[in-house]
Amino acid sequence: MAVYESDLPGVGKKFEIDLDGEAQLVVVIHNTGKRELFVRDSPDADSEKLFELSDKLARQVGTIMEGAYFQPIRDDEISTVLDDDTIIEWAKVTDESELVGTTLAESGVRQRTGASIIAVQRGDETIQNPPPDVEFEVDDTLVSIGDRESHTELERLAAGEATLDGAPGGGEPPGDTADDEFVDDDSANDEP
Amino acid sequence: MAATPLIEIGALFVGIALAGAIAQRAGQSVIPFYIVGGMLAGEHVLGRLAPLEIGLGDVAVTLQQPYVSESEFVELGAELGIVFLLFFLGLEFSITRLLESRDRIGKAGVVDLAINFPAGVLLGLALGWSAIEAVLLGGIVYISSSAVITKSLIDLGWIANDESDPMLGTLVFEDLFIALYLAVVSALVIGGGDVGAAATDIGIAVGFILVLLGGVFYGSELFQRYLETDSRELTVLRTVALVVFVAGLALLLDVSEAVAAFFVGMGFSSTDHVHEIEELLIPVRDLFAAVFFFWVGLGTDPAVFADPALVAVLALAVLVTTPTKLVSGYLGGRIYDLDERRSLRVATGMVTRGEFSLIIAATIATAGTGPVMTETIPDLTVGYVLVMSILGTVLMQYADRLWSVAQPYLVDAAE
């Protein structure tokens, strides 16, 4: 996916985003804050205006699109990329997972996988900065930050495809684990 | 006319608001409507109507039709309009952007200049005008209207298409040229044509501009610090203070206030506050720019367009300079590697002339000597802008129909 940015002197900025095939999405951001959205079926075609939004509305729609209000979790490809190596992902704990019934500290998830759990979604409730003694339950959704490999490992763990046994550093004192988690948590929460 | 000047200002803005509303209803650019609104509301039309007699039984009341006079306030408002129009031009004007695409903007801009400017000068000379009068006409027919064209681009949705690049690029080139042009020509005209005096004036003008340019290049730190404040109110006040003060200073030195405002805008364009200034001051610009166009109308007696000589010159100017812009615009599109159809759109889009032609006529021509400069050129320019702003907007709307007519010729010519 390529995004082309160009200046429109006296107007604002234009962003052209490649869609599937030849089509392009064109977003014109006016200096006044107004956003106009166009779609272009092929490079030679005329841009067809889809709609326009005020600055405020565009920001709201933007956060909705980003998934800040609601994240569909079923798809394991859902993720928020912070930079090339840092991603926020969601993983669901199944009843086959060894995580069920263990606490964050006991499981040593971060040492085992490299991914830091920054929140646990349980039903309608979200446990932010989960304390070390939080106990994992079936159907918990783990929101974690880390690189792609760590996430793959955590997902396998949460799905019950991998075990906690032989986890590297699994025997570390729980206190250490918790501290590390908290340090990571803060920076992760501030970043986006 | 009225007991308090406030009612006069009120009437002025009522007139402007009405003209704007009608323009929007008609799907046209607001500029010609503001001008015509000014003409109708001024002393030449409204002021000439017979007093209204209202009889109620035995009591008869005579009402003198109120008209908007060219008061000091309106004149100052119009001047502020020019200053803010040019200030925003400078604000949008980034040297880095120009340098980034200097090849294409340069080529398209030079083609545009080389075709349209001489056309106006030659026309002026053919009419038997003096060299300086001809150069004024050259500038007036050369410069397309950034305001109208940009608005039409947005209205038609072309802003998201490739044709917006050569159009906006050429406008940037024109704007830079017109800043230099205003500086030099105003010194020439105000110098009264005497070469010696003009040289001194040009010297002062160039000196002043060099100081401003120095400020733009080396003063971005200062500008940045000048605008560093948390208060929106202070940002507005500081910006307006500097712009108006420098523009006033320029006028004191017989340098174009428009040019000074342009350079102050350019100085601000490198700070982090561009967006904030735009957001806060666009309403101020729109307000005073509307007053400027209205004021142009106020000073124009529609009766002058009954003068066959002026109409003949006007018709000649329209007939000569519409095709020249079409050709230069088309070539500009081709320079940007657009196909024939899009290049034709660029051609139709560049036809519109507007605010800058009026600024040349209002600030330079009226300061000159002789009937051509003080009367013919201003009247001609008003008529010319009225025709070209409407013609250009309509041409853009019918560009695709025009394409179906022109297609066989343009595609054949390219082969």
UniProtKB/TrEMBL annotation, chain A:
Region (Disordered): 161-192
GO molecular function: monoatomic cation transmembrane transporter activity
Biased segments, Acidic residues type: 177-192
Coiled-coil ranges (or none): none
Domain named RCK C-terminal: residues: 76-160
Top-rank taxon: Archaea
One Gene Ontology term from the biological process aspect of the record: potassium ion transport
PANTHER family: K(+)_H(+) ANTIPORTER SUBUNIT KHTT
Name listed for the protein in its UniProt record: Cation:proton antiporter regulatory subunit
Originating organism: Natronoarchaeum mannanilyticum
UniProtKB/TrEMBL annotation, chain B:
Main localization of the protein described in the UniProt heading: membrane
Bilayer topology term: Multi-pass membrane protein
An example Gene Ontology CC term for this record: membrane
InterPro entries assigned to the protein according to its UniProt record, in alphabetical order: Cation/H_exchanger_TM (IPR006153), Na+/solute_symporter_sf (IPR038770)
Pfam families the record matches: Na_H_Exchanger (PF00999)
GO biological process, one term: proton transmembrane transport
Compartments (UniProt record): Membrane
Transmembrane segments: 80-99, 120-143, 176-195, 202-220, 240-268, 310-333, 354-374, 380-399
Gene3D superfamilies: 1.20.1530.20
Keywords carried by this UniProt record: Membrane, Transmembrane, Transmembrane helix, Transport
Domain Cation/H+ exchanger transmembrane: 16-395
A single GO molecular function term of this UniProt record: antiporter activity
Family membership: Belongs to the monovalent cation:proton antiporter 2 (CPA2) transporter (TC 2.A.37) family.
The protein, known as: K(+)/H(+) antiporter subunit KhtU
Organism ancestry: Archaea, Methanobacteriati, Methanobacteriota, Stenosarchaea group, Halobacteria
Gene name of the record: khtU
